[in-house]
Write a structure and sequence with these properties.
Helix content is about 40%, strand content about 20%. The chain has about 400 residues and is an alpha+beta fold. α5 runs antiparallel to α8 and α10 packs across α11. About 0% of the residues have low confidence.
Length: about 400
């Protein structure tokens, strides 16, 4: 029987971080073709509206390209049309070259969401679909607010969509309309044929599970079938399992045991050269980086806990009195370790990034040198967030 190779926890972390572009600081302007390359190598970048310091997608890209600025992403979407917005596990920007593979997902969503939206939103919306599509065709790009006067919501909560918004989101999810631009993060939709190139709207000429699983594995370094299926969320777990079985038989992947931070092993699959790839993975820089809570390296919370021993939960919806850390706390990466989390908010009117709390991980000390590196990073983040100064609350250093 052939023995299964093992990646040590250190090897696994370094390979994983390298695949997520979090090892060295690669040179690059963070715009145009270089920015598109970053998104292609990551696969996609999750979008989120919370802007306590910077929006999630902007901080994800800034962590990898310090020269990046938010306008650079807008240009890829609105002018160059080299990325598009759609759904992976959540809303994301995705290279437009991958859009043909979303034709299957759009068709699947059209079937799945018709019933789900009725159940979730508690109203009818299907009778509006053709009407809204025709209106967009005649008037040009529209946002959900343009439709609210025709079908107002019952309450003012952002989660309580009016029928027009439900219909518009449904048209987007099933591919009939696409996001053409954002204004103050509000999405404007146009007919997909007017937003995307013709070839992007054609079905792919390759096997979708093979593309999805192979692409996910190359971006993760190693994975279980469940992790492969969850990466793009365009295929099912059963399809991922079937792909793994076939790929093992063909010799395209091998089984490998991944050592967790607690010493336990987790059976995964990887490319046959995974041992060599891990051995040659770059040693991560010692620079401290502030990560978005939605960073690709952290979005699978269970994997982050296994690899790094880092337990992270977003407390946005936790009542303030019950929060352990803060409303929207940012993980801190140093080398190949997650060393703590920090709570802060940009006061743009005053031009100040206000730091209210720092919680080191167990065994991590913030001595003079590490604190200096942290303060240097916070200065960079402050400038990125439109602030000139950083201030610290009197009790900002908390016990681990």
């Amino acid at each position: 029987m052939t023995s299964v190779p093992t990646l040590s926890n250190t090897q696994a972390r370094r390979l994983f971080l390298e695949r997520h572009l979090l090892s060295g600081l690669e040179p690059g302007p963070g715009r145009g073709a270089d920015l598109l390359s970053v998104i292609q190598r990551l696969g996609f970048v999750q979008l989120d509206s919370i802007n306590t310091v910077a929006r999630a997608h902007d901080l994800i890209l800034f962590a990898r390209r310090p020269s990046y600025r938010p306008r650079n992403l807008e240009l890829l979407l609105e002018r160059d049309r080299t990325i598009f917005e759609h759904w992976t596990h959540d809303a994301a920007v995705i290279p437009v070259d991958f859009r043909p593979h979303w034709t299957w997902k759009c068709d699947r969503d059209a079937a799945l969401l018709r019933g789900r939206y009725k159940k979730w939103r508690q109203h009818e919306f299907e009778h509006l679909l053709d009407q809204i599509e025709a209106r967009i065709a005649a008037e040009g790009p529209l946002c959900s607010a343009d439709l609210e006067r025709d079908a107002p919501r019952k309450s003012g909560g952002w989660w309580d969509w009016h029928p027009g918004k439900t219909a518009l989101e449904y048209l987007w999810r099933c591919g009939r309309v696409s996001v053409t631009r954002r204004v103050a993060f509000r999405k404007y939709y146009d007919l997909s044929a007017r937003v995307l190139p013709d070839q992007a709207l054609r079905a792919p000429d390759c096997d979708i599970p093979d593309w999805a699983c192979g692409g996910a594995l190359d971006r993760l370094g190693f994975a279980t079938p469940k992790e492969l299926a969850a990466f793009w969320d365009v295929i099912s777990l059963s399809e991922a399992r079937a792909w793994v079985s076939d790929a093992l038989r063909r010799g395209e992947v091998i089984e490998v045991d991944i050592e967790s931070v607690d010493g336990s092993l987790r059976r995964s699959v990887a490319r046959p050269d995974v041992i060599e790839a891990a051995a040659s993975a770059a040693s991560p820089t010692g620079r401290i980086r502030v990560l978005s809570p939605f960073d690709p390296a952290l979005r699978d919370r269970a994997r982050a806990e296994r690899l790094f021993g880092f337990v992270y939960r977003i407390e946005v919806f936790v009542p303030e009195a019950k929060r352990r850390y803060g409303y929207y706390v940012f993980p801190l990466l140093e080398g190949d370790r997650l060393i703590g989390r920090i709570d802060m908010k940009a006061d743009r009117a005053a031009g100040i990034l206000r730091v209210t709390g720092l919680w080191p991980e167990t065994g991590v000390q913030f001595g003079k040198a590490r604190k200096a590196r942290l303060e240097s990073e916070l200065t960079r983040v402050a400038r990125f967030a439109g602030c000139q100064d950083v201030t610290f609350a009197p009790d900002w250093e908390r016990a681990p």
